[in-house]
Amino acid sequence: MPFSSLSDPADLALAYAALEAVWNEVRMAIPKPEQERERTRIAYLVAGFAPLALDEEDLKQNVLLHYRQPELS
């Protein structure tokens, strides 16, 4: 589970809220067969950035920035 590294209830709440916010913003652009994989990818990004976030909006923007960057091959 991507959020297993988060133990503080406030951090968990922040992470889940940011995950939903990011997902709601990008979901419609992702083909159905890829949605589960991409949601998991977003969850791992959220978990990675959560400890550094100032608030939910900051976390959401950092995740979106990194999610939208082309992956290096």
Strand content: under 5%
Number of strands: 0
- What's the helix-strand series? HHH
Mean pLDDT: 93
Ends apart, CA distance between termini:
25 Å
Regarding quaternary structure, what we see is: single chain
Biggest β-sheet description = none
Shape: globular
What is the overall number of helices? 3
| Count of the separate structural domains | 1
Helix residue percentage: 55-70%
Structural class computed from helices and strand pairing? mainly alpha
Indicate the radius of gyration in whole angstroms. 12 Å
Uncertain residue ranges: none
Task: Explain how this protein is built.
This protein has 3 helices and no strands. With 73 residues, it is mainly alpha-helical. The protein has one domain. Helix 1 (9-26) packs across helix 2 (35-49) and helix 2 (35-49) packs across helix 3.
SSE topology:
Layout: H1 9-26, H2 35-49, H3 56-67
Short description:
The chain contains three helices and no strands. It is mainly α and 73 residues long.
Top keywords for this entry?
mainly alpha; globular; 0% strand; 3 helices; 73 residues
